[in-house]
Specification:
It is a single chain. The chain has a two-stranded antiparallel ribbon. The longest helix is centred in the N-terminal third of the chain and has 34 residues, at about 65-100. It is flat and about 75 Å long. By secondary structure, it is mostly helical. The chain has helices at about 1-30, 40-45, 45-65, 65-100, 115-125, 125-155, 165-170, 180-195, 195-200, 205-235, 240-245, 250-260, 265-280, 285-290, 310-320, 325-355, and strands at about 295-300, 300-305. Helices cover about 75% and strands about 0% of the residues.
Length: about 350
């Protein structure tokens, strides 16, 4: 009977705590700041309800009889701050953003549901279609080039050269510089320093401007990927490399037959990181060209934003054009594209790891 009473008590506390937290969140999203009277009093109690609900909920969990269960509760308590922050900052905004994409949202409120109208506007925008195309090209080139550059730098930094620690720090240093600052630095380099050698600015043409963005991005991100490859290469057992050397394997054979297969998981991680990071490229794009660049004829339209990639296009749609609803629809599509491509890449890379 005592165990049964304890379980009933814990269930009551769990339900009460959950109801209080739900009520606090419900009032947070429904009560407006200009309300007065009883609603204002309730609004002032939202924080108290949330805290009390959380305390009762966790106390109810603790009251459930079982030593193993208590251990799980302790683990959950340590994870809860991270899970709660992730839920508040990622899951809730994602769900709300998907909902706003079907409305006439102004960034503050919406008055009606417009269905798929925002998505239809998005796909009839030549500038958006162009930004999607150049983003895919940018991602493809950067995934290949950054991984090649990072891997080559990692091979150099794991060799027996003198001053290897200095080279590792030097190659990683550009990654510590913010993208906005980096963009303005390279803008000065392209418009002033390099002009004395190549007699024209790479930022003056759409094609060369995209090449300039790729160069800057590789310069910034290559050192970060290098460190991950260095970690993978240094964990290859020395006796394996020694056995390959005794068997008469050349340097290239050792590289392609031993080292690369043994760091297959590292290659997967680096490919995933470069893929997602290149898709989300924003700050260097904005600081270096701000999307400027002429495209004379694309889908029957003249474009003046030929270097504007997808993330910058979404930003300009919301901020410059003040069209938050269409920008949110673009962001939802951006999320779907990134999620699908990332899952496909990880699946393919994992299957190759098994083959290796």
């Amino acid at each position: 009977m005592k165990g049964r009473d304890t379980r009933l008590e814990s269930n009551f506390l769990l339900i009460l705590g959950a109801l209080l937290m739900f009520a606090a969140l419900f009032f947070a999203f429904t009560i407006k700041a200009n309300y007065s009277g009883a609603m204002k009093t309730i609004a002032n109690l939202r924080g108290t309800l949330l805290v009390c609900g959380a305390i009762l909920f966790f106390f109810g969990l603790y009251k459930i009889p079982s030593t193993a269960h208590h251990r799980k509760i302790v683990y959950f308590l340590f994870l809860f701050p991270l899970l709660f922050a992730f839920f508040i900052t990622v899951i809730i905004p994602l769900v709300l953003g998907i909902g706003y994409s079907f409305t006439d949202w102004t960034g503050i409120r919406f008055t009606k549901v417009v269905g798929v109208q925002n998505y239809l506007k998005m796909f009839h925008d030549p500038a958006f279609i162009w930004s999607v195309l150049i983003t895919f090209v940018f991602v493809l080139l950067n995934v290949i080039l950054i991984n090649i550059v990072g891997f080559c730098l990692a091979l150099l930094c794991t060799s027996k050269l003198r001053g290897v620690a200095f080279f590792r720090a030097a190659y990683f240093l550009p990654n510590l510089i913010g993208g906005i600052v980096l963009g303005y630095i390279w803008q000065f380099v392209f418009n002033n320093v390099l002009m004395s050698y190549i007699k024209f600015s790479m930022l003056s043409s759409t094609k060369t401007a995209m090449l300039a963005i790729i160069i800057v991005y590789i310069w910034q991100y290559g050192g970060y990927i290098m460190l991950i490859y260095v970690t993978g290469l240094t964990q290859i057992p020395g006796d394996v490399l020694e056995a390959a050397s005794i068997d008469g394997a050349s340097a290239l054979q050792t590289l392609f037959k031993v080292k690369i297969p043994m760091i297959a998981s590292t290659v997967t991680i680096c490919t995933f990181l470069t893929l997602t990071s290149a898709f989300k490229q924003f700050d260097v794009n904005m600081a270096l060209t701000n999307g400027a660049g002429s495209v004379p004829d694309f889908m029957g339209a003249y474009l003046s934003n030929g270097t504007q990639m997808l993330a910058l296009n979404i930003y300009n749609t919301a901020i410059a054009k003040n069209n938050f609803a269409v920008a949110q629809a673009k962001a939802v599509l951006f999320f779907i594209i990134l999620a699908v491509i990332s899952l496909i890449q990880v699946r393919i890379s994992n299957s190759r790891e098994v083959e290796m």
